[in-house]
Specification:
220 residues; alpha/beta; 4-stranded mixed β-sheet; 18% strand
Length: 220
């Protein structure tokens, strides 16, 4: 006996499931966005940015575009997990909540080392790793740029003068060595000449007493 209505029910169930899936996906996206909005409202003192850095240059670009001491960049994957998992949300919201205090503490440490902190913040990457960063500069250079520049120029001039002195000393030393070599060569020539004169045969003719013949005596 044939059972009627089974195919119609199956088709209706499949259509319902697909619709629910599409609706669920849409709600998930909306929930993540809503969660992010709520997060920014919950921590108004923190500059929260969703960012996925592909390389160090993108990361640097982000850092140099920031100002203040409470910047937090979070990967989109972590935001999605935070939106759907309360435990994950609690873990990283603590990092966000601590950002202002972390920034102020970092600022104080920089000032203690005569450094001005321009900006700092936190990055939470796609793997959930938390890292801190800061951009600063020399306080003296910021407050007294003219004096620092003058000192820098004076230092460079002093280094150039010192380099020139060393070059001149090295040149003098080479000249002295050259003169010594020439003197040594002259001595060697003189010694060689004297030796040659000393070893030259002295040819003299001696006539024997008996008057017979001539005898040549080579005296050395």
């Amino acid at each position: 006996m044939a059972v009627t209505g089974v195919n119609d029910y199956a088709d209706a169930y499949a259509a319902s499931t697909n619709a629910a899936s599409a609706k669920g996906s849409s709600e998930a996206n909306r929930t993540t966005q809503e969660y992010l909005t709520e997060l920014k409202q919950k921590y108004p003192d923190v500059n929260i940015t969703v960012a996925d850095f592909s390389n160090i240059e993108q990361r640097k670009s982000y850092m140099f575009s920031c100002s203040g001491y409470s910047n937090v960049a979070i990967s989109s994957k972590i935001i999605e997990k935070m939106a759907s998992d309360p435990a994950v949300a609690a873990k990283y919201e603590k990092v966000i909540a601590d950002a202002p205090k972390q920034g102020e503490d970092f600022k104080k440490r920089c000032e203690a080392n005569n450094t001005i902190l321009y900006a700092c913040g936190t990055v939470i990457d796609k793997d959930g790793k938390v890292t801190y960063w800061g951009i600063g500069g020399d306080k003296e250079a910021r407050e007294n740029p003219g004096t620092v520049y003058k000192e820098k120029v004076q230092k460079q001039l002093a280094e150039k003068r010192e380099k020139k002195k060393k070059e001149e000393k090295l040149k003098e030393k080479r000249l002295e060595q050259a003169e010594t070599a020439e003197q040594l060569l002259e001595k060697m020539k003189a010694a060689s000449k004297a030796d040659a004169l000393e070893n030259t045969p002295d040819s003299t003719e001696k006539i024997p007493e008996n008057g017979k013949g001539t005898q040549v005596d080579f005296t050395i």
